[in-house]
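Entry:
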Amino acid sequence: MNQRAQREAAGRKERDLKTFDVQAIDLDVSPQRAHAFIADPTQLPQWTSAFASVSGRRAVMRTPHGEVHVDLSVVSSPEHGTVDWRMVFPDGSVATAYSRIVALQEERCVFSFVLTPPPVPLEQLEGTLEAQARTLTEELRSLKALLEHHA
């Protein structure tokens, strides 16, 4: 196969590869309570499997290749119901997670999370997003249990 055909095949594979997942869960707590908990980075180790610990703007993340220290920043807006996390890895690569909390009633809301691929080369992505999506499903269940049963 010539180089042009290889580039075209790679481009088709990239377009066909699912590069995001969106999940949501209803929470029987106020949007304000949900936002306060979710936006607090020190709470991440309680409901996510990716974070071993968080202290200030530094976090220890669990990866398939072991633990890694990252710079972590949270950009949130209670008014808009958004909570986004930005993680800078030692090699300079950046991952961002996006979420939103939407009020349904005074004591009920929905939390949605957009899962984007990790900052790895395309050839390493296959299967990774699907595995992360399964993990996210469990993490959202943990979040729901924490918020609803520890009110």
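The chain has one domain: 19-149.
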